[in-house]
Specification:
- The complex is a heterodimer of chains A (121) and B (921).
- Chain A is mostly helical and 121 residues long.
- Chain A has helices spanning 19-28, 35-45, 54-66, 91-113, and strands spanning 33-34, 70-73, 86-89.
- In chain A, helix 1 (19-28) crosses helix 2.
- Chain B is of the alpha+beta class and 921 residues long.
- In chain B, a hairpin with a 6-residue loop joins strand 1 and strand 2 (165-167).
- In chain B, helix 4 (90-107) crosses helix 14 (418-454) and helix 25 packs antiparallel against helix 28.
- Chain B starts with a helix and ends with a helix.
- Classes of the chains: A mainly alpha (121), B alpha+beta (921).
- The interface between A and B is medium-sized, with 26 and 31 residues.
Chain lengths: 121, 921
Amino acid sequence: MSGAPSSLPHPEVLLPLSPPVYHVLLALGDEVLHGYAMMRAFETLTGGAEQLLPGTLYATLARMVETALLEEAAPPDAGADARRRYYRVTPFGRAVAVAETARLSRLVDVARVRRLAEQGG
Amino acid sequence: MTRARERTLLFDLALRSFPARFRRRHGAEMREAFAAEIARQNARGARSLAAYTMRAVVDLLKQGWRERVRRGPLSGHGHRAPEPRRGGGMLQGMWTDVRLATRVFRRAPGFAAAAVLVLALGIGANTTVFSALKTAILAAPPYPELDRLVMVDVTHQRRDEGQPRAMYWSYPKFQAYLQESGRLVDPVAGYAQRRTTLTDAGDPAMVGVELASPGYFAILGMDPVLGRAFGAEEGSADDPRLVAVLSHEMWSGRFGADPAALGRTVTLNGRRLEIIGIAPAGFRGLSGSAELWIPMASAAEVFNRFMITGAQAHWFSAVGRLRPDATLEEAQAQMRAMGARVAETFASEDPADVYEGDLRTFVSARVNADARAAVVLLSVAAALLLLVACANLSGLLLARARRRARDGAVRLAVGASRWRLIRASLVESVVLAAMGGGAGVLLALAGTRALAAAWPRRFLSNTDGTIVAMDPGGLAVDPGVLAFAVGITAGTALLFGLAPAARASRTELSEQLKEGTRSTRAGRGLFGLDARAVLVGAQVALALMLLVGAGLVGGSVKRLLDVDEGLETGNLLAFSYALPRTDAWAEQPAEFHRSFMERVASLPGVRGVTVGDAPLAGHSWITLVQDVEGHPPIPQGEGMPIGVHMVGDRHFETLGVPVVQGRTLDERDGTDASPTVVLSQFAARKLFPGANPLGRRIKMGVSDDEHDAYAEVVGVAGDVLYARPDEEPIAEAYFSYREFVDPSATMLIRTVGEPLGLLPSIREELETLNPSLALYRVTTLDALVTDSMGDRRIVLALLALFAAVTVLLAATGTWGIVSYAVADRRKELGLRMALGADGTRVIEMILRQSVVTAAIGVVLGLVGAWAGSRLLEVFLFETSARDPRSFAGAAALLFTVVLVASYLPARRATRVDPVEALRAE
């Protein structure tokens, strides 16, 4: 990574995140994954309710690397496919994900007050 | 398996929407992920597979496009390496060209601004005017089977004189017509529009009412959305039903769109009417201003008994549907015969009157000839403007292309591909066209709004005011028209932007790069290209046509403004009111008028009050002079038309009209004594040429029988214009308001300050005197003066605007073209001057070319204006369409403009140091 932490903006500056960016951060978590694994992981984590499509995913990955939210990582084990690129969330990316989650949960709190969170309400 | 390959192929194709660099980096992995996912979806079933493929491909296309237009990393974190420029993607190159083009325009803002402005004016003006054209003329009224909808008329003609003229029906005649068997027009319904007071369900208001006979709604295909229309039981005047159908707007506004409004009542002109139906939203009747409908048969109850009983009370129109088996010609022939039979039943007192019948198609009846002429004229003007704009734009682009031909050659020489050069020019033109088009759309939106606001009310209905012809609210930018205007101008931009580039890319490099070869080549005239002379000539000719038109209409408006209305128009307020027939005051309207005038006169800021017709607003009553004592008898119906006015005691004083002979009217008049009258000067001169009219007695058809008695002339007052100034003046007679029992009146108030500022206190006075009365037609005399020439003013304003713009375009166009031509010949001119030619000679030489071009343009323009001036005739007032002064003036002006526009660059050319000019090459 070329960017020293001091040159990065405050995480809040990037908020709100576009849904694909947030979804990638969620799909990766603390793991090192390639693109297709992220697609699968995300679908499993959301119980099949959400999906990442290849076009969006790879375009988003490229952009997230440019903005230092992700970095490319070495394959986690020797048997990994050499043609694949593996990614990991940077500390900055993690800070952004935490900030976005806090923002969303504040909104969900408001929705509860407004009685918009009930099932079938 | 094959299907799987097809899917992968589809995916691969869609993947190409991403930039090559991105594909190289991620393509293989994406393809693999897609393949894996496809296999998984396949296990879930065909539908799931198809849906996924579709979503994935659309997503690819979308993201690929975004990736291409994305201009770089978000905000500088991370770093993207500059892309290698190896042919790149086609789109990527285009994007670069667009950026280049905008950079070029930033460096030559004058050129870009001029081109965008020219495009915007051409597109904006044309879209606005042609959208109006479409609304006013081409838009079909919303009624089904229009071709079978006809207006049914009775016609009147003086035996052996003129053409039969369509006139209104009277109720008894219409009933007789309905009794005729075998009518080819069936059903048929009568309708007429009135204004009267509505006094419950909210504030009292003057509302538009249509009186309609059963069948009216069905004929127009406008059946009520709630409740019912008038049925047969509402058709009989012997047993009139007091019912009403409300417009959707009134139902929403006054009843909150409550369905329970059916069965409730409204009070109209003091009569309670039961609401039986609600008309469809937006329908305001054929008159275009109805807020509710009442059965025609109830006219006697709500308005006036005479409307039902008077065989000669002609007051309504009739509309009907041709039977499916009938042709218009058959039905017309039948109607002539039926009209004659009906007339026989109600024989006219005058044997010279011939009554028949006729049919007009609804579509032709709704045309307003003047409005149509105005719109056609403006469309022609806008089209001329568009042509000038296109010519101007081509001039700009050609001149620019010539100046840049050398740049192009250099770029070719250092290895740019020809296609690349053409593409750069093309993209430049497209960017120009897009900017101009955008500005043009904005201009068209604003222009349409302005036109809708300024459109004269007289133009909104057909010529006799019975059918609404145009809804100014319906005036909107028409997408088709807009597309056409944008297409024409953008096409010009592309054509003239591209053609020179294509040619430049074909020329031999060496020739272009050889110092100055091209610019010294002689023998093609000053303008180098014939196209340049053509462009200048065309612009001059077209601009001249518009200028002549604007000059002619301008002269007419000036003459109209100079017309003397015969009174002081400043600070004069006018409004009308009508006492409902059940009002406590209705029995003694004169007493009410007097009390109202007294109260208003006592208000601060009021200098005088009277009742009477408002000047320029048209007559409310015209009759014929029947007899002049001591003159030979006048045959029936052949007397002089005379306007009848009921006026207050301080009428002439309040309006500032001089009483030139005798006295004004006062308390002595209009009581028990025998009738007295004040004549206008025009009337006195016509009736008593060269004699003293005072003390003479005349009789005129003033309907109440007791007043058909002779009235003694007690005074003569100055002439006042009551009709529009371009109509024939007629004689006027003034009676005291006490002479008639008229529940309606127009009040005229001379104020100290702003007239409309007085309205609140007038309404307060009215509130104490009669709270159920509504004021309507509130206006000032100054506004009426302006209105009376409204149609001409809008025509003039637009013509003048178009003419000014085209003259400006012609001037800048000429200037630009001559400038470039002179710049091209710098070396030659420098050489001439170095060899001893003086500056005057050089200027002369350049001007000679311009004079020839301008002269040809002026001659062509004059011919065009001569031919086109017929279009203008209806807008002219005391001006000939071939008025030589307008033609000569416009020609001289344009000629001067061209000379000045040529002189400036020519003079600059002579200021160049000959040595410098030679070295520059």
